[in-house]
Amino acid sequence: MYQHFKGEEFEKWVKTANLYGREEIPFVFVIDFDFKKPFIKKVDEIDSSELLYNFNGFTNCHTNFCEITEKIEIKSYPIEFEKYKAAFDYVQHNEYLGNSYLTNLTFPNRVEINASLKEIYHRSYAKYKIWFKNKFVCFSPEIFVRIEDGVISSYPMKGTIDASIENAEEIILENEKEAAEHATIVDLIRNDLSMVSSNVQVEKYRYIDKIKSNQKNLLQVSSKIVGNLSKDYNKRIGEIIATLLPAGSVTGAPKKKTVEIIKEAEKYDRGYYCGICGHFDGRNLDSGVMIRFIENINGDYYYKAGGGITVYSDAQAEYEELKNKIYVPVS
Questions:
Q1: CATH code: domain of residue 79
Q2: Phi, psi of 204 (to 5 degrees)
Q3: Does some domain include residue 172?
Q4: What are the CB-based long-range contacts (under 8 Å, 24+) for 293-299?
Q5: pLDDT(121) > 60
Q6: What are the tens digits of pLDDT across the range 86-120?
Q7: Would you give the distance in Å from CA 36 to the centre of its chain?
Q8: Residue 243 resides in a domain
Q9: Is 68 a residue whose pLDDT tops 70?
Q10: Are 283 and 64 in contact (CB under 8 A)?
Q11: Residue 43 structural domain
């Protein structure tokens, strides 16, 4: 059933999640991209000095934070275009060979920020926020999967544009490259959900999400896909999540081969970036893909970002999209 992972930590996480699901014990989880360092803990055992989270209002942090008052500023030093272009060319070459139809290419970009990771957690807003052991902060707009009353749903996001551009919504929805990329991911997620549920269908296709940030407002394109789980789904909640990983929206299609291409092209460890986080309340589950992500690496901050590449992609345009995604959504 599991296509991409193995190892003691992986198996331990799956067994623990299944146990908590069977006993209807609420828990929070954080899973890295390669499923090597997965975290799972009962809600009532979480130490807020190590982990802060807010998943659509489900949170362990109820205090206001006013340590800084100035506007959060990010000075970014994106990956050099030449390095990006070399990886881009490798990805596109594999796509021309038919090894992948869509590949999500990402890189760490050094940034200077006038705030700590914890301050960014408190002052940012997003569907899924997490601060983890001062190693990283994530403020993600992207849902991975939700489970409500036996219905599993996923909402892949593909396609980003600056909202200030005239006719931005029309441009992004009519862009053939973006439409093809989105269609590929929707098909992939539909196939993924079919591995764990029945009667899978696309309920809503290519709608617009509006995201406000400290630098610019963005429009992102999403879809909604749903399926029906078996009545005993809570007893195998760990298996369900593991089967769906890694998230299709941050890998590509076909998933297994594309992950191999990603690792060769990127040449760095994504770590928890592009993994997932979320919670299970005893019956229902909510989870997000960990994009919009700042990591503390030996005292320096890196904003990990990227986007989907197809045979129709232009390197300069994709590079600009990567830079556009280096932002913090603050109120």
A1: 3.60.120.10
A2: -145, 130
A3: no
A4: 293/136, 293/137, 293/138, 293/140, 294/111, 294/113, 294/117, 294/120, 294/136, 294/137, 294/138, 295/108, 295/135, 295/136, 295/271, 296/117, 296/134, 296/135, 296/136, 297/108
A5: yes
A6: 999 999 999 999 999 999 999 999 999 999 999 99
A7: 17
A8: yes
A9: no
A10: no
A11: 8-146+231-324
Condensed to tens digits (0 to 9), the pLDDT of residues 180-239 reads 888 888 999 999 999 999 999 999 999 887 877 656 687 888 899 999 999 999 999 999
Structure-token pair, residue 222: 């999403």
pLDDT at 10: 94
- DSSP labels for 148-177? ETTEEEE--EEEEEETTSTTHHHHHHH-HH
DSSP 81-137: HHHHHHHHHHHHHHHHTTS-SEEEEEEEEEEEESS-HHHHHHHB--SEEEEETTTEE
pLDDT of 176 > 80? The answer is yes
Q: Among 322, 281, 241, 265, which Cα is nearest to 99's? A: 265
Query: pLDDT tens for residues 19-32?
Result: 999 999 999 999 99
Beta-carbon count within 10 A of 196 CB: 22
Query: Has residue 116 been placed in a domain?
Result: yes
Q: Are 321 and 315 in contact (CB under 8 A)?
A: no
User: Are 296 and 91 contacting, i.e. CB atoms less than 8 angstroms apart?
Assistant: no
- What's the number of CA atoms in the CB half-sphere (13 Å) around residue 254? 6
Supply the pLDDT for residue 5: 72
Q: What pLDDT does residue 1 have?
A: 47
Q: How many domains does the chain have?
A: 1
Cα gap 102→95, rounded to integer Å: 7
Burial call 75-103: b when 16+ CB within 10 Å, e when fewer: ebebbeeeebeebbebbbebbeeeebbbb
Locate 22 and state its tokens: 């069977």
In a domain, 74, yes or no: yes
Which pLDDT score, from 0 to 100, does residue 4 have? 65
